Amino acid sequence: MSVKVDGMAELSQNIAKLAKQKVPQAARKSINRIARQAINGATKTVAKEVGVPTKTIRSRAKLTKKAENRSLTARINVIRSHMPAIRLLENRSTKIWEGRGGIVVGKYAIKRGFKQKLKNGRTHLMQRQGKARYSIDVVKIPLSASLTQAFSEQLKDYQKDIRNELSKQLSEAIK
Q: Which InterPro entries does the entry link to (predicted)?
């Protein structure tokens, strides 16, 4: 006794197509999604920790290379250098208070600080330190340690996150 199944060739073609096209596409989507989530999560935590608007920190982290079907890697570039304090004033809600002996910008109080337009045309918040001849420096907010820690924390469970996201994408592809 033999059993004849109609459409077996078509079914095998669909399975081959799924393995050839949909699996790499789902992997690409899940990698890019996890990368974007890492950027958003890390910038949010750093902004809260440092006391800077999230938009200002997010401009320092970019997804420069998205994952493709051929190469399933994504690259995130993060500018970890110190941020000039004048960047706090990009957000219109941040106020600057100038008084005798210093200025206050956001949650940062800068003793012996002042606002100055430099010869290159940029405006910066400067601070006098000591009595030396060139004792004036641009006020900067340190970000390198907090950005590094936040991104390593976000990508700590990378394998598990990719596995979960890939299963979601594959279930959507099968529908």
A: Phage_lambda_GpZ
